[in-house]
């Protein structure tokens, strides 16, 4: 089920729930998880998505599960696709019983 309210981007969650309260800079966090500062910056500023590799890195560093991060990203992406595009609404279903 798709909600009417836009889900939070997982990058915003990382920023608000982990980096800010723990006073960890983007540069320090990038070093901790073994990626570039630019990669972390793009994620926490909600300009990039969480990949499976990133989900694994986040799960270890933040003591969560990779599924948490992938599920958050999937919910965000599906909501965005549903609400930011109309073209998918014009697809006609295939009559599978006729096959």
Automatic annotation (TrEMBL):
SMART domains in alphabetical order: HTH_XRE
Residue span, HTH cro/C1-type domain? 16-69
Superkingdom in the source lineage? Bacteria
The answer on whether this UniProt entry bears the keyword Transferase reads no
Q: Which GO terms describe its molecular function?
A: DNA binding
Q: Which keywords appear in this protein's UniProt record, sorted alphabetically?
A: DNA-binding
**CDD domains membership:** HTH_XRE
A Pfam family in this protein? HTH_3
Q: Which InterPro entries match?
A: Cro/C1-type_HTH, Lambda_DNA-bd_dom_sf, Toxin_antidote_HigA
**DNA-binding: present as a keyword of the record?**
yes
Name of the protein described by the UniProt record: HigA family addiction module antitoxin
- Give the organism the record lists: Halotia branconii CENA392
């Amino acid at each position: 089920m798709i909600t009417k309210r836009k889900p939070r981007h997982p990058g915003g969650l990382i920023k608000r729930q982990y980096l800010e309260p723990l006073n960890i800079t983007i540069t320090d966090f990038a070093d901790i998880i073994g990626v570039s500062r630019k990669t972390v910056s793009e994620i926490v500023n909600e300009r990039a998505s969480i990949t499976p590799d990133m989900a694994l890195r986040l799960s270890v560093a933040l003591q969560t599960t990779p599924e948490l991060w992938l599920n958050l990203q999937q919910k965000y992406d599906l909501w965005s696709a549903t609400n930011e595009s109309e073209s998918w609404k014009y697809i006609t279903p295939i009559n599978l019983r006729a096959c």
